[in-house]
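Attaching the record inline, Q. Sequence:
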Amino acid sequence: MTTIDDEVLPKAVAGPKSRNPANRLLALGSVLRAGAVFILLGLMVIGFTYAEPAFINIGNLMSILQAVSVVAILGAGVTVTLAVGGFDLSIGAVAASSVMAASYAMIVWHLSAFATVPLVLAFGAAIGLVNAFLIVRLRVPDLLATLAMMFLLSGLQLIPTAGRSISAGLVLPDGSKATGAYDPAFLLIGRYSLFNTLPVSVVLMAVVAIVLFVLTERTRIGRLLFATGGNEVATRLAGASTTRLKTLAYVISGALAALGGIVIAARVGRGDVSSGGSLLMDSVAAALIGFAVLNLRRPNVLGTIAGAVFVGVLLNGLTMLNAPYYTQDFVKGAVLVGALALTYGLGRNTDR
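Structure, as predicted:
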């Protein structure tokens, strides 16, 4: 008799509990938290397509991905530094300096694409190494160290050309003219499309996303990176070198910023002194939106890519609808606030 009661009672209790409206609300909140960004992204695509059918054309979609590729690459670098509990404010300045460095190398030094690309990537990695030295060895707070580097690079990139943009026929400070030109092979990085559809820059974005996803989510190094950001002392006591991990994070960030600069230089075909204007804020926005993707609430590379696409779709749709340019930043900020509020607000209410 006891056995029968014990078997029947759990079933009787479990049945009403599973049909409890409160539990269904919790489940719905969990789904909304996990998919908030994707739900909003889907709604934007549907809305923009309804308002302007040309939005959904494959050419326009590839244009969106090409436009966000640089932001996504830089955002991936920001994500890695966030993983170790840091923050790289110099990433936009590194990208802009890389644009100038690539242009100077080919137009003034007459280097080929095969020499310029490794040189610029090494330049970005070196800046990341300097940032790491300031932060890890000299104990300068990461925000102050990378802010100082941002100002340093913003001024340094102007000195070799006396503040001029770099293009063919550039007049150098000594009065002579540069006789070099962009290597056509270099320009393919920013202008060529595979099968006349898929831009090379989008392929680079995908490669960066896959490599960093595997590194951060599927390897011991990735787990140690997040452990460093979560509890540096515990990670050090566990035998990991937090010094090396932080250095690795900032070197990766610098190298990815340089890669973004290479893509910009190859797309524009000149060294524009204002090329890195909005890169910092856009890449940070993408990385922060990534926190809300799949309700992970931590830095993650795939979330950052999704965040960059989210912002790109929004800005492209507003442009196609002829929205005034001065309203776009406001709308972008409002949607970002909404996405994060939806994720964290629902999470707070349902976790009680």
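The chain has 14 helices and two strands. Residues 1-18 have pLDDT under 50 and may be disordered.

More tomorrow.
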